[in-house]
Amino acid sequence: MSANNVFVSYKYHDSDVKQLGNYATTVRDYVDYLERVFDRSEKVYYRGEEDGNDLSELTEDTIRQILSDKIFYTTVTVVLMSPNMYDRSLPENKQWIPWEISYSMKETSRESGKSHMNAVLAVVLPDRNGKYDYAVEQHRCHRLIHTDRFFPIIRKNMFNIRSPEKGCCECGCQVYRGVCSYIPLVTWEDFISDHAGCIKGALDNKENQESFNICKKLEQ
User: How far apart are CA 53 and CA 50, in angstroms?
Assistant: First the structure.
């Protein structure tokens, strides 16, 4: 796999996540950790926001321009899933994470060239108790993904393969077999153990995007 430019989408101040070390932790600390991992990698380059770049005082149009400039030159969008990332009190199109996902999945042309659709990978962070079950539960013979707790643009791009393969697991539940989602979902633990392999899986889906019913639009 050749090197890929990666944009990371996340909710900066969500602190309902497992501590990294002996200090108060937010999702931004996980991004800093990823930056160090990517710096040591020959497969991935981090092209997201740098810590300390406070955008809160800027207008929405300025923030959108800054983010779109960063996303334009990337090939993969990694979404860090955290317990409080989805604010149900606001429409999806008024929140930055889904906007970043939607923009990264579109083809955009500029004088400098054309940006093609990004691969997208969802990485679930452990909650403050070290659990992932707010997003995904591992049962004895299958995984249960709580897509109803995700942004619609993420939910609609999971289990969206055009020709699904289904079967029954050992406990009798009907499950999907093989690749079934344009946006694959992995835990933080699995991602850190093989980030290049996880990213390759998302890129494979991008190469086979015609196999999925892909949604790029945000709900109003």
Answer: 6
